[in-house]
Automatic annotation (TrEMBL):
SUPFAM superfamilies associated with the record: TorD-like
Sequence ranges of Pro residues compositional bias: 228-246
Protein name per Swiss-Prot or TrEMBL: Nitrate reductase molybdenum cofactor assembly chaperone
Keyword Membrane: no
Upper classification of the organism: Bacteria, Bacillati, Actinomycetota, Actinomycetes, Kitasatosporales
Gene Ontology terms for molecular function: metallochaperone activity; unfolded protein binding
Cross-referenced InterPro entries: DMSO/NO3_reduct_chaperone (IPR020945), NO3_reductase_chaperone_NarJ (IPR003765), TorD-like_sf (IPR036411)
Amino acid sequence: MQAVRTRIRPAARRPADLTPEERETRCLLLRLCSLLLQYPDDELAAARAVLDSSVRALPDSPAAAELAEFAGWFTATGPDDLRRHYVEVFDLRRKSSLYLTYYLHGDTRRRGMALLTLAQCYRATGWESGSGELPDHLPVVLEYAALTGTAAGEAPLRRHRRGLELIRRSLGAADSPYEHVLAALLSLLPPATDADLRAVAELAAAGPPAEDVGMDPFDGGVFAPPGTFVPPAPEPPTRVPAPGPAAVPSTDPTTRENLR
C-alpha cells in the first residue's frame, strides 16, 4: 500500500475539501470496513494477516485507531469462533442487523421501494456488487461508497446514519468487537445531532416501523413472518341439483343419437 503522509482531518471537515491523498485514505478506510463486516468465510479468514497489516499502515486517525482495535481481535480469533460470533450478533439480533433500510422502514412496502431506489442508484453509476446480497447490506453500501467517491457514494451512509448508530450501540451492549468497525465508520460521517440521538433512542425502544395496512384480521392472533405463503380460503362446495323430470333422457331417437 502506498504510504500516505497526510493525516486525516476531523470528520466535521467536508469530504469535498479533502486532498487527493486524503480521499485515497478515506476510500481505503471504507473498503476495509466493508471487508471486515463481511461474513468471515475461508477466504476472508485466510486474509486476516493482510488486513491487519493494511490497518496498521493507515495514517493516524480516530477511524484507524478503532480498526486497529478490531483487527487485533480479528487476527487472534479462530475462524470457527469468528463465524459463530458473526452469526450471533448480525443474524440473530434484530437491532444489529446489517440491512440498513430495515431501521428506516421496517418490514413494510416502503422498504421495498427503498431497496429498488438503492439498486437503481448503483446501476446509474454502472456498478454492480455481484455479492448476491440485498443492496442495503452494509458491506455492499460501503463498497459502493469506496469505489464511487465521497459525494454521491457516501450519500446512502449519511441517509442511514441513525440506523448505523443503533447498530453500534447494540454491538456495544453485546460486548462485540465489531463495535469498533461501526465506530470507525461513524467517525467518517457528520456528527450526530440531538435529533439523531433522540430518534435512535426511540428506535431502540420501539423498533422500526411496522406495516399497518390491511393487518386487522391478524390482530390478537399469531402472525406469520414476512414472505410466508398463506393459502386462500377454500371456495364453498358447488351444489348439484337433484335430478328432475328434465334430467330424464329423452326417448326421441334424434336426441339419443346426439347424446352418443
